[in-house]
Amino acid sequence: MNIQEMILTLQKHWSDHGCILMQAYDVEKGAGTMSPYTFLRAIGPEPWNVAYVEPSRRPADGRYGENPNRLYQHHQFQVIMKPSPDNIQEMYLDSLRSLGIDPLEHDIRFVEDNWENPSLGCAGLGWEVWLDGMEITQFTYFQQVGGLECKPVSVEITYGIERLASYIQEKENVFDLEWTKGFTVRDIFYQPEFEHSKYTFETSDADMLFHLFTVYEKEAKRQMDEGLVHPAYDYVLKCSHVFNILDAKGAISVTERTAYLGRMRGLARQIAKTFYEEREKLGFPMLKGKGEPEHE
Amino acid sequence: MNKRDLLLEVGLEEMPARFVTDSMNQLGSRVEEFLQERKISYGNIKLYSTPRRLAVFVQGVAEAQEDIEEEAKGPAKKIALQEDGSWSKAAIGFTRGQGMSVEDIYFKEVNGVEYVHVNKFVKGKPAIDLLPQLREVIVGLHFGKNMRWADNELRYIRPIKWIVALFGSEVIPFEIINVSTWQKTQGHRFLGETVTITSPAEYEEQLKAQFVIADPAERKDMIRRQLAQLEAENSWVIPVDEGLLEEVNNLVEYPTALSGSFNREFLELPEEVLITSMKEHQRYFPVKDETNTLLPFFVTVRNGDSRSLDKVARGNEKVLRARLADADFFYKEDQSKDIDFFLSKLQAIVYHEKIGTLAEKVSRIRRLSAKLSELAGAMKEEQEKVDRAAEICKFDLVTQMVYEFPELQGIMGEKYALQKGEDREVAQAVNEHYEPRHADGEAPRAFTGAIVSLADKLDTIVSCFAVDILPTGSQDPYALRRQAAGIVLILEEKKWNIPLETVLETAIAVVKEDGIGEKETGLLLEELTAFFKLRIKHSLQERNVRYDFIDAVLAGRVGSLPSLFAKAAVLMTHKEEAGFKETAEALSRVANIAKKAEVQSSINEQLFENKEEKVLYKEFLRVQQGLEETGEAEEQFALLESLKQPIEQYFDHTMVMADDAAVKENRLNQMRKLAALILEFADFNKLLVK
């Protein structure tokens, strides 16, 4: 099964379980969790069931396209269901079956893994799912988002697409994976991998990036003052990406690191709180029978 | 009494392996307490647990609570009966209170007076009416980490999926957030099916038929046998790490061990790296040969049966290959650099914003190590080793290997240092200076490692205290308590005769040189001494020194730790002896009256008025000299003990608070000097033997 078929299969699977299929959000981010479709929508009482592919940028993992396992940008398949359905584990295992993974022929285990994203004030409990010893999925019950207690609790399922594909396609090198018939990951992503790695580690200008961070942060605050949650959040995402590049370059010392994370966390908390209040003002419109998951 | 078996099973989404066993034991003991409190008799108990269930089977549970039969005494007969022979209000009230009536009254004499009595009888309630309260047992279990799910308020270890509660074949009815008790349990997630438990006694076997080995001991045995079989088939030795076995056991419901291999070339990696990759990251058992040499194989335990084992093995091999390829890359990168390269990188790492960089910390460790090794009486050659070890003790923190495998800090340092041609003891110290690594870990063996370990830990504690990072309650992010315990252990074990106060003052001086914090030295020393006294107290408690003896030896200066521990031990051995109490009393009496001394002046022998004063003074001089000459706690105590009689005699014949001011002052001063000697050993006033 190639990556394109995998994505189509997962989309079909979760669509059948009542998820809205979203497209990737168009601001750079380090993980699918940071998309407003997860971060913001996990807040408050309104039901929310979505699935989407999220290209995720990890500048520190950039290896000029030379490492068989590490990528500057990989893909996550992200599922959010709120409230977490009772049979979510079965739904998930069915998705593996639909990808051709027969649990009877493999060793599938749910191994404790608690997740935290300090830059967004998020915490959750759950597992990493092991397929024959390989972590293929993060499975998390959100307990806190943007510093707010989750009520109801969302469950987040994050598949590492390339990881899973390397298993399904039995490939040692991520660049050899078939994206779709006739095209490999190398064909599509090698050049950007190389260039982004070179950019991150060699040609990017730390001073300019520090400046951008300050500008983005200021703009995020300014938009918060206007009560505009979404534009403000976009700028927090931009801060986060710029920070990740600086961090990968080693341009941020440990102390500074804590301070920068604290600044982003402060903004994220404020945005989370305001988003909740804005939805409340609207009377939590999605509570009215819409978006109910179709339980099997 | 009729009896039935009881079964309680809580089905959960996969629990964290580390909590499974403890949670099972907790469920068992709480169910027992539940039955005992309600006076419901029961027989044997058996506990079960897997990642997905906690269960308890109780054999022969009585169908009803025990009846209560007891004699209750009421008012005296003359109060109970009115003049007309009818029952008084007091009598009626008493019987009502006992749930009986006046017809049940009989009289019985107690100490010559007749009192109203009844034979009280309370019929036990049917167990089935009380068992639904088991709900609270389940809800009340404590776990290390709780979560919420869906729209529920309940915090629990993981979402509850089903509950089996059976009393014989009868379902005990209750509900926990939409999950009602019933008779059905789940088999193995992939191999089994839902199954109706016909009776509690069938539980274990019925689950087994569904590929769930519910008894954790049986599951563990299965794994052991499978490992042994792989050993036999391949002539391998598979060392069984009990911690790993316990974890693996709690990750599976139906274990099947299988082996895989990796490329022989990876065996060039340090053994610790291979083992960490396999054990910590993948929960594999490493494989060795008879000579204890690592082989390019591993064993993993799968949650399932033996179908497609080769496929499972291939998958696992692929994961391990990727991990080892990474490690190999880091290893080669690190080897291509020299120690100075890494040391220079320490300048860029902030240890703590108020305390400075790692490079600065290392510089302090170096200065402090030099002073400590001098205090410990090191030779020049030893001092040179200490200096080099202190200089390089943190270099491996910036190697790629330690970045990827933080648990290998120190271990990689020792390896790399040896490869770079460092002295063996210096290299060893890079590793040993982290010791003791945990609460009951061992102190560094070699002198060099011990000194650098002391210096590192002291620096951490003192600089944290200097900037007001103090452990409070359960908060101790820098593990200062553990490090202090490590210092106590090292100082005691190495038998260095350095007073703790000197050690702390030395460390404070070094931290002050670097201008860390603004706290003044006196306050810092006071806080640190109090903090260390608590650790020492803890350490003495662990040796079963009684608390009043601990207070007695810790009342004054701490002094050198080996002698402090020896003093506590000596006092504990003598405490039951005849005369100990009197000795303690005599010594305390001196200390007590000495507190009244207001002026410090020397003793004027001309002012002595009686023989006893003169004798005591002579004895004082003898003991004072004796204490100066011996470092043995046993001898010191014997010297103090010899003062008992002269002190007693003295008090029998001497009025310390004499009318003559000069005589009084002289006597108080004699008491003061004597008390100082005694308190140097212990404050006998704290002892509860008197």
From TrEMBL, chain A:
Gene3D superfamilies: Bira Bifunctional Protein, Domain 2, Class II aaRS and biotin synthetases, domain 2. GO terms for molecular function: ATP binding; catalytic activity, acting on a protein; glycine-tRNA ligase activity; transferase activity. CDD domains: GlyRS_alpha_core. Its main location: cytoplasm. Keywords: Aminoacyl-tRNA synthetase, ATP-binding, Cytoplasm, Ligase, Nucleotide-binding, Protein biosynthesis. It is found in: Cytoplasm. It catalyses: tRNA(Gly) + glycine + ATP = glycyl-tRNA(Gly) + AMP + diphosphate. One of its GO terms (biological process) is glycyl-tRNA aminoacylation. Pfam families: tRNA-synt_2e (PF02091). InterPro entries: aa-tRNA-synth_II/BPL/LPL, Gly-tRNA-synth_heterodimer, Gly-tRNA_ligase_asu. Tetramer of two alpha and two beta subunits. PANTHER family: GLYCINE--TRNA LIGASE, CHLOROPLASTIC_MITOCHONDRIAL 2, GLYCYL-TRNA SYNTHETASE. This is Glycine--tRNA ligase alpha subunit. It comes from Bacillus aerolatus.
From TrEMBL, chain B:
GO terms for biological process: arginyl-tRNA aminoacylation; glycyl-tRNA aminoacylation. One of its GO terms (cellular component) is cytosol. Keywords: Aminoacyl-tRNA synthetase, ATP-binding, Coiled coil, Cytoplasm, Ligase, Nucleotide-binding, Protein biosynthesis. SUPFAM superfamilies: HD-domain/PDEase-like. InterPro entries: DALR_anticod-bd, Gly-tRNA-synth_bsu, Gly-tRNA-synth_heterodimer. It comes from the Bacteria. Its EC number is 6.1.1.14. One of its GO terms (molecular function) is ATP binding. Belongs to the class-II aminoacyl-tRNA synthetase family. Tetramer of two alpha and two beta subunits. This is Glycine--tRNA ligase beta subunit. It comes from Bacillus aerolatus. The gene is glyS.
